[in-house]
Write a structure and sequence with these properties.
The protein has 463 residues and is of the alpha/beta class. The protein has helices at 37-52, 76-95, 106-111, 134-144, 189-193, 201-213, 236-246, 264-272, 289-294, 301-314, 333-346, 373-396, and strands at 2-3, 28-33, 56-57, 66-71, 100-105, 124-126, 148-150, 171-175, 177-178, 197-198, 218-222, 230-231, 234-235, 251-255, 279-281, 319-326, 350-355, 402-410, 417-422, 427-431, 440-448, 453-458. It has 12 helices and 22 strands. Bound molecules: 5'-deoxyadenosine and iron/sulfur cluster.
Length: 463
């Protein structure tokens, strides 16, 4: 088990002459992705690196020689799932001792060599800034039987030059910055993903245009802290404008933002350009200023609400969503009630809600975890139920109205239905009506519940 230093590997360019595709099982790679959208985008980058080096990306775990798990560390249960998965992979490895198993992503960065215990099935451990080393570490493993580890974080790596291998479809991920410098006290991301760095604006805008030419109709610009994007003198609003102009028909979204960096200029830019979606995900985490201070979120609820009011005023018909953590250290019933009050005031269209999970190394780890599990669960149920009612109320406001919907494919629940999304990121189901995938159609909404809108495609003569 040796960390292979930079000087030891063969430059990637050396491999580019290898065939891009072959039927050789030994060159087949299967990546399983867990966690956030950033990980899904990273998997496409990993597939791009491996494809360039003569590996075939496979959808089938059984005929693959290399299995990688792209992992998440954000909460304890995310890591627990990976340990369970590794146990299952043990059986596969027993049947095929040559099988290569790798852990990549945040868990690799957090636990490093700890994932390579004697009994462990893991052969490779690569952190999020080390994916270029995959081919050489695999070669070294095959040739010399040495397990490989590479977990250095970088201040510059953006994989700018790597062409991701994406699944064909209508919507694409595009990562524009990596890392996070915020160090919220509960969060492990600054430790697993390192410092903030951004791709160049021109390269991103060109990629958006290329995605449009390839048939994608909806792109989400990604970053752990996307609105602190900075390249030369350009900020995130400049980037959005450049992308909007590069592909004026492409729907452009972004995630995830921090309230501290959400500028008026950004809100005005979204309002000005039609193809910048009227949808903002702005994690609030808690409704209590005392808890926000302990979380080191760097804003007060009053400031957050003033941003929300600016957004609602400047972008009519905007959809809003948020993240909320319940049961953070010292959270009282009063703090919890403030979160419920905030939710009632903002009326989010949607929310991602989590029980606080203490993470080693973070500041909050030392604050203790004094809210008992039962209380955390009850508070989580409270906010989930409240949000369900609010989402339903908001979705019912769409009844009878007509929306532009980009159709993304056949509904998972019925092959007689299609699904798509509104500009505001609401999922819409319509009856199958020829091959509409990839098209923007007018849909009249007839029915709505807390999660989904149901409607019918309206033809131009009905308008
Ligand atoms: N426990 C629970 N939720 C967390 N998040 C981040 N760290 C933790 C943690 N330790 C949530 C935050 C963040 C989202 C991506 O995950 O709400 O916005
Ligand atoms: Fe974590 Fe805070 Fe950075 Fe988001 S902004 S990734 S919650 S440290």
């Amino acid at each position: 088990m040796k960390d292979i230093g930079l000087e030891k590997y063969i430059p990637i360019e050396t491999f580019t002459e290898l065939p891009r595709s072959n039927n050789n099982t030994a060159r087949k790679l299967y990546v399983e992705t867990y966690g956030c959208q950033m990980n899904f985008a990273d998997t496409e980058i990993v597939n791009g690196i491996m494809g360039k080096n003569g590996y075939d990306v496979s959808e089938n775990i059984d005929d693959s020689a290399i299995i990688l798990l792209n992992t998440c560390s954000i909460r304890e249960n995310a890591e627990y799932r990976i340990y369970q998965r590794l146990n299952e992979l043990k059986k596969l490895k027993k049947q095929n001792p040559k099988l290569i198993v790798g852990i990549i992503g945040c868990m690799a960065e957090r636990l490093k060599r700890g994932l390579m215990t004697k009994k462990s099935v893991v052969d490779l451990v690569l952190g999020p800034d080390e994916y270029r080393k995959l081919p050489s570490l695999i070669d070294n493993l095959v040739d010399n039987g040495e397990k490989g580890i590479a977990v250095r974080l970088s201040r510059v790596e953006t994989y700018d030059d790597i062409i991701p291998i994406r699944k064909e479809g209508v919507s694409a991920w595009l990562s524009v910055m990596r890392g996070c410098d915020k160090f919220c006290t509960y969060c492990v991301v600054p430790y697993t993903r390192g410092r903030e760095r951004s791709r160049e604006m021109e390269g991103v805008a060109k990629e958006v245009k290329k995605l449009w030419d390839e048939g994608f109709r909806d792109v989400t610009l990604l970053g752990q802290n996307v609105n602190s994007y900075s390249s030369g003198s350009n900020d995130f609003a400049d980037l959005l404008k450049a992308c909007s102009l590069a592909a004026p028909e492409m729907r452009i979204r972004f995630t995830t933002s921090h309230p501290h960096d959400l500028s008026l200029k950004l809100i005005e830019t979204i309002a000005e350009y039609d193809n910048l979606c009227n949808y903002i995900h702005l994690p609030v985490q808690s409704g209590s200023n005392r808890i926000l201070d302990l979380m080191k979120r760097e804003y007060t609820i009053e400031h957050y609400l003033s941003i929300m009011n600016d957004i609602k005023r400047i972008i009519p018909d905007v959809s809003l969503s948020t993240d909320i953590i319940t049961g953070f250290c010292t959270e009282t019933e009063e703090d919890h009630k403030m979160t419920l009050d905030l939710m009632k005031e903002v009326k989010y269209d949607g929310a991602y809600m989590f029980k606080y999970s203490p993470r080693e190394k973070t500041k909050a780890w030392d604050m203790g975890d004094d809210v008992d599990e039962e209380t955390k669960t009850r508070r989580l149920v409270d906010i989930v139920e409240l949000q369900r009612d609010i989402s339903e109320e908001k979705n019912k406001e769409t009844l009878g109205k007509i929306y532009d919907v980009v159709i993304e494919g056949v509904s998972k629940k019925s092959d007689k239905m299609l699904f798509g999304r509104t500009d505001g990121n609401k999922t819409v189901i319509v009856p199958m009506n020829g091959s509409l995938t990839g098209q923007k159609v007018k849909v009249k909404i007839n029915r709505a519940n807390s999660a989904t809108l149901f409607g019918e495609v309206i033809h131009s003569n009905q308008l």
